[in-house]
Every structure is written in C-alpha cells, then in structure tokens.
Amino acid sequence: MNLKKSLIIAITLFLVSICLWEFYWRSQGYTPTLNDDKSLWAAQRTKVNTATDKDVVLFGSSRIYFDIQLKKWKEITGTNAIQLASTGSSPLPTFHDLVENTNFNGTVIIGVTPGLFFSTTYPKAMPWERPKAKVDFYKKRTYAQQLNYFFSVPLQQNLVLMSADDEEWANDIDLKSLIRQIPKDNRNGKPIPPPFYNFGKVTKDRNMSMIPRTVTDTAFANGIKKIWQYFGKAAP
C-alpha cells in the first residue's frame, strides 16, 4: 500500500471518528461551550491592566459568578464589569493580586460567602489554592499557552468534544473524566457524595448562566439539589 493511499485512509478514519464522537454527545443533550479554565480567567485578568476608573472588577465565588449577568449589568449601569469570580473558592487570592500587581483605581465588588471568605488563608487549602493557581497561571503563562487559548476558542465554541473543564464535574466528557467516572468499590467505607453535574454555560467574557436543562429536566435539577444537600448537612 503506497503512502498516499495510507494517508487518505488515515484522514478519512480520523474525520469519521471525530464526527461520530461529536454527534454522539450532541445526541445526549450536550451543546458547545467554552471551558471555564485558567486560560479563560487569565484572558479576563489581562483586561484589568487597561481598565479605567469607570470600570468594575468582580470578585467572589459562585454567587457572584452565576448571579451577575454582564450584558444586563452593562444595560443597567452603563459600565463594563470584568468577571474574576471563581466557584467554590475564596476571593482573597485574586483580590490580593489586583491590589499588589495592578494600578486599577475603578470599583471593586467582592461577594462574601462566609464559609469560603472566612474559611482559611492556608496556601494549600482548597478554597485558597484553586484561585491562587489561576493567578499563578496568569503570571507564568507562555506565549505558546496564549496562542493555544486563542486558537482553541473557535473550536470550543463549535465542538462539544472540546469540553475539558478545570473542575471535576460528573458529566465531563474528556478522556480523564470518563475514566474517573468508572464505578469503583467503596474501600474506605466513607459516604459517597452524589454526582456533581456541571450546570453552567460560559461565554468568552466569563458570563456564566445556567443551561436550559436545569429548567426543563427535573431529574437533572434535583441531582444538583442533592449535592448541595450533601454538602450542607453540617451547615446552619
């Protein structure tokens, strides 16, 4: 078999496999969205360097991230808001970065979720380490990483198979997540938490909104409630 024929067969098999994989996940109700990862956060952090005193920077956790819709914010206030909130984490590491490493003199809004804001300042604790990793990535990212983000955005916006969030959602479809979802024996006897599903859709400016399925699929919505009931057992 000559090289040209082998190349054509390989490309054909590759394209067919990609199409089948994409169509399969779309048939399961998935739609394209950007990955809410460190690169997306860093792209918004870059905007702070050229922001004016009329701009607003948002810090916080899930409440700020989900509850402030940037388009509606602009319509009501006439000002631009830079979204730097991060789910399940303290806003302090990212706020420290703003104070210590920028000359920003506009308005800062910080959402205070007591259980996260007052939880810890220990660098290795999850509420602190997760947002600090985003700050560190912003400071150390290479030109190659910036180009990778630039070229990947159009693919993420159009292909479901590009999903690869930094979080460990139960319904992620990248290879690492699919392997993690394989059932395993409960060897330590500890209670197994309910699956934590990703229920958000994010845009390039990090505007986060809940996906329509949270309204139309009651089983899916109840699954989200169950995880918070599990985490909230010891809460007031």
Explain this structure to me?
With 236 residues, the chain is mainly alpha-helical. Helices cover 50% and strands 7% of the residues. It has eleven helices and five strands. The strands form two sheets. A three-stranded parallel β-sheet has the order 2-1-3, with helices on both faces. Helix 2 packs across helix 7 and helix 5 runs parallel beside helix 7 (126-140). The longest helix has 25 residues, at 3-27. The radius of gyration is 20 Å and the shape is globular. The chain starts with a helix and ends in a 5-residue tail after the last helix. The model has no long low-confidence stretch (mean pLDDT 89).
Strand content: 5-15%
H/E series, N to C?
Answer: HHEHHEHEHHHHEEHH
- Assign a percent range to the helix content: 40-55%
Terminal CA distance reads 70 Å
Structural class: mainly alpha
Keywords for this structure?
globular, 236 residues, 50% helix, mainly alpha, three-stranded parallel β-sheet
In short:
This protein is mainly alpha-helical and 236 residues long. 50% of the residues lie in helices and 7% in strands.
Element layout with pairings:
Blueprint: H1 3-27, H2 38-47, E1 56-59, H3 62-67, H4 70-77, E2 81-83, H5 92-101, E3 107-110, H6 114-117, H7 126-140, H8 143-158, H9 175-180, E4 200-202, E5 208-210, H10 213-216, H11 218-231
Parallel strand pairs: 1-2, 1-3
Antiparallel strand pairs: 4-5
